[in-house]
Amino acid sequence: MHADRLDEPLPVQGRSSLAAALTAVPDQRDPRGVIHALPAVLATAIAAVLTGARSAAAVAEWAADAPQQVLAQLGVFRDPFTGVHRAPDESTFRRILAGVDADALDDTVGRWILASRPPADTGRRVYSVDGKTLRASGPAGAQVHLLAALDQHTGTVLGQVDVAGKTNEIRCFQPLLAPLDLTAVVVTADALHTQREHARWLVDDKQAAYVFTVKKNQPRLYRQLKTLPWARSRSRTRPATAGTAVTTSAACKQSPAPGPSPWTSRTPSKHYGSAAAG
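and the corresponding structure tokens:
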């Protein structure tokens, strides 16, 4: 999740409730001999990852250096004899993170982030769907691949699903977006998801709009778009912006649709889709 990328800081009540929210994640350990509560271990690991930790060793190092006040707020175990909060060691983090119910954890953190989001503005909502392979998640060919939905305004990951293989992203599109309220939302996706079934489902079932990239994986539609009068179409250019290493600019052309497209719905009032040849 990317709670640290919100345009506005999370409210205090949202930040302080994460450890409590994590109590919803089931603890699959044998209760005998358990010292560190699961919510405390998970909250500590999340805090460490948000500061840049990328391994169990780095998480344990961050926890060992964290002030007592921080460990107390995270719910870390307090030794009843010394009164000192004892952070979990590397082996504890590694064992618990390897055995946690990943779907339950993802759902819990996602719900917490959504509840902590700033109030939505009155502008149009735009959600991006994209798939990425997680670095350091396994050997080549066996890495974890996720399909995620991102709110472009806040940078919040609204949901993500595990994809068995990158070629299977298509079948994960609807399960990813189904739990979300997409009424009047514009959904963007790359050319892999430029599918009739996706477009019809978004328009007819979710009352959403879409902007899909059209490439040669849809040859007939690609040819149709190439024949539009782009030379006479209006052009809009976004001013160049300088990043840390590159300068980027963007331009787009808009051509009026020739009429209701059979690619989505034959009902003109429901033709909310948009596509651009890439």
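(Above: one complete record from the training split.) Residues 1-16, 265-272 have pLDDT under 50 and may be disordered.
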